[in-house]
Design a protein that fits this description.
Elements: E1 2-10, E2 16-25, E3 30-34, H1 41-48, E4 56-61, E5 64-65, H2 74-78, E6 81-84, H3 96-106, H4 111-124, H5 140-152, E7 158-162, H6 170-185, E8 189-193, H7 197-203, E9 206-211, E10 214-215
Parallel strand pairs: 3-8, 3-9, 6-7, 7-8
Antiparallel strand pairs: 1-2, 1-4, 4-5, 9-10
Amino acid sequence: MIQLERVSKRYPNGREALTHVSFFVDRGEMVFVTGRSGAGKSTLLKLIALLERPTRGTMTVNGRNTGTLKVRHIPAFRRQIGVVFQDHKLLADRPVFDNVALPLVVAGAPLKEIDKRVRAALDQVGLLGKERMVPVELSVGEQQRVGIARAVAGKPALIVADEPTGNLDPELAVEVMRLFKRFSDVGVTVLVATHDQHIVREFGSREIVLESGEVRGGDPDPLPSLVASR
């Protein structure tokens, strides 16, 4: 599903956020990307979601070499990926339904299909019945679940989540992570960036550790049996 071969990212100011990163994530696998603040976790997720382009190296996501992807094909590529942010990025003045429906509306989905998918996504995260509420009326945990519902409404093959439990207490953090595990169990690939070692230990999924933009342990051959592991 995801394969990186010696991928590096250097920003215009000269900062090298990632250096020769190689690893493989199988379809349906749930993997944690860990490391201290500034280790390159967010940059890595942005590259996978094609919000940024790598400076060097080869990256394949869901069978597509992102380096050869033409600009006009990027929107379709991104529709295969659900992105979950730490700060939710919800539209404060729009109800839950509209927030979850937004990517489907942008993609031009029929109204009947939007209604069906939004309600199914809200049901999956336990928020069906709250679709007319606005974000300020929800708890922080519920707001994060709205963000997850928005990410999965388009039935993506891959979910990338950047510190999705960073603003939650431990109990809510586990609850949110259980949602990701549930999606992984039905074949969705899930990549979660986190610094919360309690969460990593709780779920026991494979861990890719970044240190100063590099995978800890060097530059392994990007094959499933040789990837960086816990």
